[in-house]
Design goal:
Blueprint lengths: L5 H10 L38 E2 L6 E4 L4 E5 L4 E10 L27 H4 L5 E4 L10 H6 L6 E4 L1 H22 L1 E9 L7 E2 L4 E2 L3 E10 L2 E10 L11 E2 L1 H8 L1 E2 L6 H7 L16
Antiparallel strand pairs: 1-13, 2-3, 3-4, 4-7, 5-6, 7-10, 8-9, 10-11, 11-12
Amino acid sequence: MKYCSSLLLLAVLMLACKPATAPSDNVQRDTLTASALATYGTASVKPTGLEIPKTLRGDEGQILRRTGYTASYNARNRIPNWVAWHLPANHVAGRYNRNNESFHEDTEVSNPRAYDSDYRGSGYDRGHMCPSGDNKWSREAQEQSFLFTNICPQRHNLNTGAWNDLELQCRAWAKRYGDLYIVCGPVLLDEPHRTIGRNRVVVPEAFFKVVLRKQNNYYKAIGFLYEHRGALRDMSRYVRSVDEIEELTGLDFFSELADNIESKIEQQAELRDWYPLREIK
């Protein structure tokens, strides 16, 4: 994928207005209208794995390897560039829940960094990128999911609404299909960005998630884009192709796949290929 110009980004977002192929696609889909992308920090190591994206900007951020996920951390913005993880069926459940966990700063990154005090009274939730619910299989994984290098400021009605619906749906898909590879993160558009707290933690303008499922040698992929505002609960509104998310973020997803497979699955935006969906309550 080529790094997109502002005009190409605008074209991608206009393209995203067309309805997803799903039974409920007769509604107007949310779109973004901006023309600049985020910048990333300095790379420290080269992670590997089917879920790990490549950046096409030559600047990968500080890579943080955790038990349940890998994060690329942006020191300038005090939030991750992206967070990636493998979600097999046996990671969907477990006895290590979030009840005894608290959010905490990540001492592996330098100051200034995000602290709990930055979020307190800000009006924003501490929004997990790799969810606590995907880390119940390990005490250490659960604890690490609460590091602020896995967190972004997120509006409460998005965090507990449509974004949470997608997290629950991914766990349902992992149980059904066996192996998911997931990448999600913030979308940063034109500066200046809103910030919170003494340490000026950047508030994203949107969030993306791409999901790859693998069953033996069969692959399917889908992308999602959520503007950072009160979101309706109809998942079809937020469906995008992985190609569209790549153009928006400057990331290359699932590049370890054979080129012919990657090219085919990343053009698709077919929510009906992922049915049945869990009931939203």
